[in-house]
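Annex B. Sample input.
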Amino acid sequence: MPRTDDFEVWIEVDGKRAEEYEERVNQINNEKEKKTMNTCFIPSVAGKNFSVVIQDLRVDRSSRVCARCLVDGSFMFYRLTRVTKDDPHPIKVDRCQLTADTQCFFRFGAIKLSDDAQTSESDRELLSKLGSIQVMFRFITDIKEVERPMDNFAQLSRAPRPVYERKKKGGGHRTEIGQEVHNPISKWRTEWKFRDDLPKTEFTFSYAPEEWLKAKEIIPRSPEPDGDGSHSQTDYPECDFLDEEDAEAFRQL
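Annex B, continued. Sample output.
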């Protein structure tokens, strides 16, 4: 992921940084908003756990910063960056708080399809954000500790609705609940106010099976071995999650 002067984010799978492809940076700079948007693609493997790693690169950390993470368009966690200037260690998050006493690990999973439109997911915005991990940095002020119950649990469903097969989501992966662990939360909460006068920084990772990324030529193709390279459709279970055009491109690898 293109790092900014102030922040860097990456995704780790099996303790290794995921390869990043088609890195892009866009800027919004007007009277209403100043924001830097960084995007890229990463390969995902269904059944593999992953971590979100956040690095504050600022030398001057007198202004506190909050990192907010959304996965597949749903809230997962907040983290406040560290104040200590000489602490080089990044913040690594591999789980989220589901309830007051339960956490779960992040895990890539396959999107389930259905031929029943009535029982399938109908939220267009959610469907458009499946297969994405987003971290936004915002400057904050008026930070204080208060005693109150937690009210912003991760919005990760134990039983996500399937996707209507006629709206096949290219890529075919989403994030699911991994192993659950018992972890009661503290009664103390950190509260703050966002500073709208300072710029925002956003990192978005679009994830999909490596084969799909190769089919879309996001990952460069490897040289084909000698032979006709023909395969039957059943050789590629991931094609079940692609539309016909994408699936055909996939089979031509």
